[in-house]
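UNC93-like protein MFSD11
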Amino acid sequence: MRPTPPREDRCNNEATGSDTPAPPPSSGSSIRRAFLFMTILFSVNHGCTVSVLGLANARLGSVGIRQSGVLYASYTLSALFGASWIVDRLGSRSGLVVGTGLSSLYVTSFYLATAAKSAWPSLGWLVEAVALTGAAVGGVGSSVLWVSQGAYFSAASKLYSSAVGMPGEDVTSKFGGDFASVFLLLEVCLKLLSTSLIEAAGVGWRVIFGLYTVVSIVPVVFLSGIADLDPKRRGYGAVVRSALEGELAVAINNEGAGDARRRRAGCLTDNKATASLNLLLSDPKMKYLVPMPFLFGLSSAFSTSVINGEVVEDVLKDDTSAFVGLLSAVTSLVAAATSFAFGWLESRHESVHLGKGLAMSIGGLCYFSVAVQFLSYPAGSDWSLPGLVIIYTLLGISRATYEGTLRSVTADMYPDDGEGAFGNIILFGGSASTLGYVLSVTDVLRCEQVSRYCVEYSDGSVHNVLVMEVLVIVMSVLAIPSFWRAIWMFRSSQSVSEEGSDDEGSVQMSVATSPEIGGGWPLRLRSRRLNGDDAGNSEAEGLGQGDELQRLSADKEKLACYLKLAKPLRVSTREMFCARAR
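Tokens:
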């Protein structure tokens, strides 16, 4: 079948196509600069969020405990129902703006709750209503924010890899280390803000929460100005037609497959709102990857509710919660420094993925160590300041693996499905945190009297901490080998993909110096029919239907023109690749 001719000869008309969106940044330095700018703004906003979260239990008491539970429940449910859909519809850049805006409302709720508590002490219901509403909104915002960050991370990594010719896994290690370092360093500064203002200037908590509110709002304004690296939002459809995609692999293979088979392969879903769940059910690697964020969520809940909220106050007699911010800053500072070491380790062993697997194993072992120590010495009276510093240091090492290495591995494994993949990280991390809060601070594990593993909290209630400690230990034992299993499956699938990349349905053409395609990069165009694919039939009018890709000559100008005509395709890159599913 001959290709359907275009409606107008845009290949020979230089004046047309003026409405084509401007391409993303084309140089490696500009891409990295955009990523770092996003990282700084993201870190400022989220740093304010985690700073006030760490103070919730200490400053708002039982209301703060319930507020944190609502935050994590909202965070988890949003990841399961809606966050991926929002990011898919808005794009990663707009998703970052929406996410930071909603997260700033959570920070604002602390200022309003503190003000209401001071002005109307008898209206406890008002304080609780403000705090819980802010937490519900903030949970949605944090979920959207992290999914957007993951999508932006994946897009920036792919574009940078193509622009500078660096292997993709080295890029994700580099960007993961950059993100974790900047994110955690700014978190240190923001966590130390409360301690320094209280100790040095005697500032009240209302002023501190007001300052956090103002700082958290600033990134909302500037994030709208960062470079948009999402090709779907810029009108390129499934085809990125510039030097930023070093190898453009267009796989259109629907010969006898049909949508049902592609759905079974996890390549096509009807509902973006449940993209995370669809990926979890269809991709076996994800089942082995998610125990790590679940371990992080459990440990975070334990450290926030028990260590921050109870042990520190008991050991250091910290009625003003000044040392909570200081010790939390130790965790962030250690995590920032460790991120550099892990980045070096990962980049030196990318051939077998030893670096990233080893880094995540170290993180899991640190969580294991913290739980074992509290299993051995559960009471606050057993601890001293040096011992707590060791605990917060171990938490910092683990935090570095979660914020940097885990996100890097996720971007490696799911370069074309960032929304669903990072949504699962949020889903399981948030689910574990919610479970941890329920077990740590509610009446589920309340004891009648104080004993070795029944610890008295500052509000006079007695809670069992043994269950949480055992859960963290068990999850550590499960998560580490599970993560290595996911890596092995990823490597196996890569090997199979490479072996099948040169089958008889492929035609490889080398394009020398075209500015549209990129100098010297090989271009693989798979010759497959579009018959039976309604989306392809309706959208690919510029290319026609059938084996026209095989007939394209190696003439770079003509090839570049055909790629321009391919831009209206609204089929996702992942769907096109997954069309190979048998």
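Residues 1-22, 234-270, 349-353, 500-582 have pLDDT under 50 and may be disordered.
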